[in-house]
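To assess whether the prediction recovers the assembly geometry, we first specified each molecular entity separately, as shown.
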Amino acid sequence: MRRRLDSAVVSELEAVDAALAGTRPDADVAAIAAAARADAIPMSPAFAARLQEAVRAGFPAAAAPAGSRGRRRGPRALAAAGAIAAALAAIVVAASALHGGGAPATEHVASGAASSAGTAVQGVPIPAPALAEAGTRRVQRGAELTIATPVDRLQDTADGVAAIADRLGGFVARSDASVTGNGGQATFDLRIPVGRLDDALAAISRLGHVRSRSQQSLDVTGAYDSARARLRDAQAERAALLRALAGATTQPQIDSLQARLRIVRGQIAAAGRALDSARRASAQAQVSVTVLGVARAGAAAAHPGHRWTPGRALHDAVGVLSALLGVLIVALAAALPIAALAAGAVFAGRALRRRRREQALESSSPAV
Amino acid sequence: MALDPVNTQATTFDALYRANAADLFSYVMTLLRDRGAAEDATMAAFERAFRHRRAFDRRRGSERAWLFAIARNAALDELRRRRRAVPAAGEPADTGEHDEADPLVRATVRAALAGLDPRERELVALKFVAGLTHAEIAEVLGISAGNAATRLHRVILKLREACHA
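The predicted structure of the complete assembly is given in tokenized form:
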């Protein structure tokens, strides 16, 4: 903020300027000026000649005092390095944000599909189909898949889903379809042999634009073993009961044994059903498929082979610009703090250098 | 705005050098009080000014103040490096100028000048030797014009008192 000078200060300085200019005599100022000029030490002729030669030659590198060039370039090099580092950091952050944080569902699914044979959606390792059937481990597998297709192709796509299930040895356990206005959807509950699950998912994915895809696995080994043990125990008990019945001599004994046999037979049937259920669960994967019928313009770009219209191009251009804007915003968000730190460092460096200069002046020896 | 077009910059800088070299050296000498250091700092100042002459902006002040500010920085950098302030042998020398003043008064004022602290001596050199305005002095010192005027006023008052002591 500007401050008005005191009138005494102003008049004093005007008087000094006038005296130095010779327009208003002032004995004090004349004496001070004379003393100051008398104390002023002139250049030696040798240095004056050397300086003039340097000026005339345009200060070649050899004339520079040792180290002055490096000192001058230091802050600039530091600033340039800081700017480059900030730019690189911004690019890295933006790239990682795009790759990890902003990936659309299709990209995520695509990467998952490449390794889906042995990896669950949650990242928990699951056995490959062959392993699921081998040894003592039994794993129930399932998948959910949502694809989009132009609404006028909804019926064809739905037929394709059923055909795929049939071709791979599976079947459609349940299906439902509806068409409303500009859209529609069909849902399927498929049973696919575990060994063909990945083939089925890949084939269904090719029918439209994949919106989402997930897989689950559930270890049913315990349930299977438990049912089998119950069946074995019940069968052993039935054999023992039959042997006892063969040796029974009294009617009450026979009645009692037959009653017990009826119970055991029920237990055998229940254990057998549970065992079959567990076996089927591990042998057939449950696949839920949702086919979304969308308006033509929305599906065109998603489905290769469809016409690329000016409207579609405009839509794509807006999408590209939006993505670029996102990149710029992320880059800016990363670069701003770094730039602020760099600016602060430069400012602090200048302030420190200025302070040290002033301290050097204050600590210089008094006049003699 | 730069000093001048490239083809006339050498001539312009030569004129700047001729107009200011003597005063600049005296000012630097006031700060450093060592002829060798003052010569190094003066050379460095002119070199810096020459290399950065395109960066000069006339709207931010006069060329003279810009040059003196560069010289001040160079001198203080030199002062920091050397960390010494050895009086030059046989100096200061009386140049014999302004002998119209009363010798007794002049001797008194010179004694008062010698008793000033480094910052005050710097102000005197800038005002009475180099002839800078208080606005230019403010630019050289990196302070406000009001601050420069106030400091200058205090020094002048102190020296006026010495004249009448």
